Amino acid sequence: CKSSDMTTAGIAINSGDWNKAEEYLEKEVQKNPTNGEAWFELGKVREKKQNYNGMLAAFTEARKYVKDRTMLDNMAFLEQKVWVGDYNDAIQLYNDALAADDATNKARKLRDAIDKMKSAIAIRSANTESYSVLAQMYESVGDTAQAIATLEQYVTMQKDAVDMLTEKNIMLDAERPAVQNVFGNPTSVKGAVNGNDSVLADYYKSLNGKEAYLYYAKNGNSFKLAGLRVNPPSTWLDGEKERFTTLNTQSYSYLAFLHFNKGEYSRAMELLNTVTRLRPATEDILQMQSQILDKTGKREEAMQSVADLATKYPDNKAYLVQYGSVLVNSGKYDEAIAQFDKALVIDPQYDVALYNIAAAYKNKAGTVQLEEKSKMDADAKYQEKSDRYIPMLDKAGVYFERYRALPGKEGEFPVVEQLMNIYQVTRNEQKIKRLVGELEGLEPLFQNNRRYYELLGSIYGKLGKTDKAKEVFDKADKLR
Questions:
Q1: Is residue 112 classed exposed, middle or buried when 0-12, 13-18 and 19+ CB atoms within 10 A define those classes?
Q2: Are the C-beta atoms of 122 and 131 separated by less than 8 Å?
């Protein structure tokens, strides 16, 4: 038989009198603290009253005594529901704050957004995506210390996932069959739609002794690894465990940048090394690594480490590109180009290799151009030997064009600028005309993009088309 307090609380719940229900449920758990059902009902009532911390506290007690699967699932459902609400509210407040003109209103909304995201984290601390967004919010209010602390939490929570990949030399964006060749077939597979994209969640009951979900996003005709979740909380619903999430390497890169600015080079390099084990190194990461190596005097040591990886795994295109990038930073262009060539033999469409080999040829050409200029400055009679660098620029142009022909790359403005510069130096009027025509044809896609019009305007200016330059610069000004 239920106690009188439970009976009274039940009647109050049925009539929607949440205050009375809470009062009598609290009396019940004071008298009978092992009454799991009372704790469960108390958590539900507090959810109705939007006392989410109180809900969590009640559910924590309930789980000590409740064995009923329906009750357990109901608690997980309510927690997830509250998390979704708080997370979405935090994002909306953050967006509203960024759009606010009034400084006071902006600051208030930012603080509200931070409080709401902290509430979301309190409810679902294992949802890692919350931490990256919270760090951005802290940076928006100038609280770099809290941003660093929050991102360090993110890195700590992703340690098992990162270790699982790096121990097996698996990189993000690896195709699903290649990952399964290493980890084996999953216990089960669940497909879903994430926005406009198709995604898969491969469930492993035991992967290196741990429960794991690997998430893949469709890219062209294949599914590529985007993230993973290791040992998710046992209290979560299966659907929550299967929910698509990414391993956000940008959070690592930004955290490294923050540590770098504080002169904490060792920690910054640790984070950058983690990123480069998960993705091919980008130019900004390589530049930061290069600066750290110069400041700490460990350039040769780092180069040898990357070289060893490329030698040990000669079929890993990412390691080859990474080694090539380090060689570029040391001015060893021919050796770098050789590494990029090896990567392109493995995958002729590898975007990172195509971009890097094009940039390497262009940078090498720039070095030779400077040599020629120095000779002309030293000797007025010296005739520039442009045939020393023009062939390199021609090769750079070929690789940039191949890169730009890849799906989704035609609108990357920095590449267009590189090509325009190459064709102007090599005086290739036909390709300049073609490139300008292609750029003009992209206007419907970028009519709301200020950078597009600025690029087009600068090109018109270099070509002496002042009227057209003014026209598109005016369009750019209207988008500021």
A1: middle
A2: no
Extract the tokens encoding 297: 């005097």
Task: Return the amino acid letter for 327.
Answer: L
Question: In this structure, what are the phi and psi dihedrals at residue 215, rounded to the nearest 5 degrees?
Answer: -110, 130
Write the CB contacts of 403 (distance below 8 Å, at least 6 apart in sequence).
Answer: 351, 354, 355, 358, 409, 415
First to last CA, the chain: 70
Q: How far apart are CA 377 and CA 74, in angstroms?
A: 80
- Whole-prediction pTM: 0.69
Q: Are 439 and 459 in contact (CB under 8 A)?
A: yes
Q: Quote the radius of gyration of the chain (alpha carbons, Å).
A: 29
Q: What is the pLDDT along the chain (480 residues), one digit of tens a residue?
A: 679 999 999 999 999 999 999 999 999 999 999 999 999 999 999 999 999 999 999 999 999 999 999 999 999 999 999 999 999 999 999 999 988 888 888 999 999 999 999 999 999 999 999 999 999 999 999 999 999 999 999 999 999 999 999 888 898 988 999 999 999 999 999 887 666 668 899 999 999 899 999 999 987 788 999 999 999 999 999 889 999 999 999 999 999 999 999 999 999 989 998 998 888 767 678 778 778 877 887 777 777 877 887 888 888 888 888 889 888 878 899 999 999 999 999 999 988 899 999 999 999 999 999 999 999 999 989 999 999 999 999 999 999 999 989 887 877 878 888 898 899 899 888 988 888 888 888 788 778 878 888 888 888 888 888 888 888 888 888 876
Pairing of strands 197-207, 222-230: unpaired
Residue with tokens 């770099």: 144
Give the integer Cα–Cα distance in Å for 439 and 418: 13
User: Within its chain, how far is the Cα of 310 from the centroid?
Assistant: 25
Contacts of 71 (CB under 8 A, 6+ apart): 36, 37, 40, 62
Sheet holding 210-219, edge to edge: 188-194, 197-207, 210-219, 222-230
